[in-house]
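Changelog-adjacent note: as of this version, every example in the card shows the full chain rather than a window. The one below runs 64 residues end to end.
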Amino acid sequence: MKMKDIRELGQDDLAAKIKDLSEEHFKLKFQHGIRPIENTAKLRQIRKDVARIKTFVVEQKNAG
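Full-length structure tokens:
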């Protein structure tokens, strides 16, 4: 997810996106513990997306 896309979302949408991505990350991590998943880079990408969104939320709170 790019910052351009994140900036277009509202606060409620951002919170929902964080929740969805966190759940997806947990499920993939659990699956990977049982058996190797094909695309392990997906775990890293999801973690980065969550961090990117959280960073944007904190910036918004500090700005105004």
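Structural remarks: The mean pLDDT is 95.
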